[in-house]
Amino acid sequence: MITQEQVDRILRLGGNGLPFVSLYLPVEPDRPGRRTYRARLASLLEGIRPLADDRSLEHAVRVSLRDDIAKIEKRLGEEPQRPGTVVVFSCSGHGVYEEVWLPRATHERVVVDADPYVRPMLAVLDEYDRTCAVVVDEVTAQVWEYHLDEVRELAAIRDRTTRGPEHAAGLDEVRVRDRADELSKRHYRRLIGELKRLFKEGGFDLLAIGGHPYQVPAFIEFLPRDLHDRLVGRFTVDRDTATAADIRDKVRVLVTDRAYQEQERLVGEILEAVATKHHATVGLDDTLWAGSLAAIRTLAVDAQAVAPGVVCDRDGLLARTGEQCPLCQDALREVPDVIEELVKTVIEDGGEVRHIETETDLHTHLTGALLRFELPPHPVDAE
Ligand SMILES: [Zn+2]
């Protein structure tokens, strides 16, 4: 699981005089006929090996690069089973090696630069909310992180003040209840403080509250406005028996529902903008043209959509068909899925990508986009 601490750590790297190797290697176990993972890794590393032997570079730079290449070759073992991208940031001269797994494919590439090349990683992660899930009762709380469909426990909080019927001896019922309420409030306040800190430092987008149905609302009433605004929903769970998988399943339902709503909202926004002719487009041909011109601010892709097409390796033109690039006249290369090429291009150009998993009006159009500027007309096809 990629943690916010890891992302923050990666963003702080760089500027220390030695180069970083940033490597993105897509994992596509279900794509037969492709060169193997190891072969693709080897050829990416071949691309930077001349730098490691370049006598015009400082000795320390060459040694660091040579060690980076050796380390990456050694550390990246077999191809993972899940489709996605393996990302490495390495600077051996400073003892830095970070490996990250992303749930979607990016362009295959290796970059050597003073800073780590993070944009594709950030663009992919941007599509996934990070959720803080709290399982709460009057005395305890468990805080979990849910991200990329995995959970991990961040903290367990138990109020130090013990209480129970045995402490009530000699007190009348009303005073016992008041005392219990007072302790719960103190516990809730402490938990709120902890959540505020986590949201400030942990990069969380959403909050989910779980526990017994009669205890959850009491805590939700305590939430300050800023945390309440992040609330994605509540779930019922038995703190004593719940496993990590139980928490994950409960939170997944809430987060997925929310994601579907967001997806529908985006598709609505695109169609509305198309109808009023305001910096938007829908349908594969126009969206490919927009992608070719780096005009896409937010791309919406029907999650099931696949379409063969062509790309120009010189200027990145994308189209459904054609033999010659209308921009540069080079021969176009056929690809099995031009929509995937479009997604990678938008990430590369600093745009947002949203996969639409729910049934919307986008389904028949395959793709749509909010644009940075109005598109010029299509070039006349050479044919
Ligand atoms: Zn071209």
From TrEMBL:
Gene3D superfamilies attached to this UniProt entry: 3.30.1330.30, eRF1 domain 2
Stored Pfam families: baeRF_family10 (PF18854)
Origin: domain of life: Bacteria
Name the record gives this protein: Peptide chain release factor subunit 1
